[in-house]
Amino acid sequence: MRILTLESTCDETSAAVITERLEVLGSVVASQDDLHGRFGGVVPEIASRAHVERILPVIDEALRRAGVGLKDIDAVAVANTPGLAGSLLVGLVAAKTLCVVLDLPLIAVNHLQAHIYACRLAARRNVFPCVGLIVSGGHSSLYRCGGPIEFELIGATTDDAAGEAFDKVASMIGLPYPGGPEIQRAAEGGDPRAYRFPRALLADEDRLDFSFSGVKTAVRYKIVGPGRADFSEIQLEPQQVADLAASFQEAVVDCLVGKAVLALKKTGMQTLCVGGGVAANARLRQRLTEEVERAGAELHIAPLELCTDNAVMGAIAVERFDAGLLEDLDLDILPGLVRR
Ligand code: KG4
Ligand code: ZN
Questions:
Q1: How many angstroms separate the alpha carbon of residue 170 from the centre of ligand 1?
Q2: Is 276's C-beta closer than 6 angstroms to any atom of ligand 1?
Q3: Residue located nearest, by CA, to atom 16 of ligand 1
Q4: Distance (Å, rounded) from C-alpha 203 to C-alpha 163?
Q5: Domain regions of the chain by residue span
Q6: Could you identify the atom of ligand 1 that is nearest to the CA of residue 309?
Q7: From atom 7 of ligand 1, which residue's Cα is the shortest distance away?
Q8: How far is the CA of 114 from the centre of ligand 2 (A)?
């Protein structure tokens, strides 16, 4: 069986062809970073228009790389939640159209479950039950994952996502978008103890939630002074940029690692799976490796190419297909975070 998976939840247009044995026959990710860069973040309207232009060529290219044609596809899967409404609609309409024209079954993919499933794909064996940590541009959340499609939200950010904070802080210190990889690079030459930024909620052992808006504001005030917003006059020295990047990154990593380990303790689970764009962060990967080992648990972090958005992780559709979970053509988008 061959499944065509589509992913257009945010600003990557992606398609892949995957077999029921989780083999990836072909995959394409068309990034829109070049379109959003000058705005310092994803502009939803630009993202959806770019998806409209790219979705068909991306599907064609994924099929070409897989060496198959549309007639060889047995089902179509699409990420319909959560994400930007306009972006989600493009993938969903493309998937439904293919299903109508080719008379194929339609499978819904939860984008967040798919981020964790990237760990299952890389491990090539069962990784469930586990605690799932998803850290991306839009989400920072912890889940109790009973199985690949059995998720219960146990912690979330009360304001900004970790990736969003990386992107905004990068723009404050003069680094381009997307800011995560840039901050990581700048931090290599910096001192993580140069500035002491807040670790919101970290000391509260009753909660598994995150909050990253405070650290963002703390960086801003460190640069321009308390209560001021104007960056136009500020010229940072390269060492200041490196120290700000390293100190900010350390604060965010402390919170993510602290709450993930607390989640293992609270749930009694033995495995942590980590996915999402920020999971590509080298310092986060290093600290998770150390702390999860110290906690005596097993760690799976999605491989770098499966951290940021991609359709390969849509292979989770195989699990839903096996569970008999097929969709009608009235399937809709669900832009908001689904609690279960
Ligand atoms: O999962 P993703 O591709 O899109 C969403 O679903 O949001 O994540 C994108 C986010 C961006 O905020 C980007 O800055 C961040 O992941 N990111 C990183 C790194 N690589 C990407 N953040 C920190 N360190 C990185 N190396
Ligand atoms: Zn994502």
A1: 12
A2: yes
A3: 277
A4: 22
A5: 2-104+310-322, 127-306
A6: 3
A7: 137
A8: 9
Please, what CATH class does the domain formed by 127-306 belong to?
Answer: alpha beta
Is 163 touching ligand 1 by the criterion CB < 6 Å?
yes
Contact 58, 30 (CB under 8 A): yes
> 219: closest CA among 243, 238, 186, 235?
243
Q: What is the pLDDT along the chain (340 residues), one digit of tens a residue?
A: 999 999 999 999 999 999 999 999 999 999 998 999 888 888 999 999 999 999 999 999 999 999 999 999 999 999 999 999 999 999 999 999 999 999 999 999 999 999 999 999 999 999 999 999 999 988 999 999 999 999 999 999 999 999 999 999 999 999 998 999 999 999 999 999 999 999 999 999 999 999 999 999 999 999 988 777 777 777 899 999 999 999 999 999 999 999 999 999 999 999 999 999 999 999 999 999 999 999 999 999 999 999 999 999 999 999 999 999 999 999 999 998 655 4
* 127-306 shares the fold of 2-104+310-322: yes
Architecture of domain 2-104+310-322: 2-Layer Sandwich (3.30)
Atom index in ligand 1 nearest the CA of residue 178 equals 14
Q: What are phi and psi of 37, to 5 degrees?
A: -50, -50
- Nearest ligand 1 atom to alpha carbon 138: 7
In sequence order, the β-bridge partners of residue 30 are 13
The residues, ordered by sequence, that sit 6+ positions from 226 with a Cβ below 8 Å of its Cβ are: none
- Asked if 225 and 274 touch (Cβ cutoff 8 Å), the reply is no
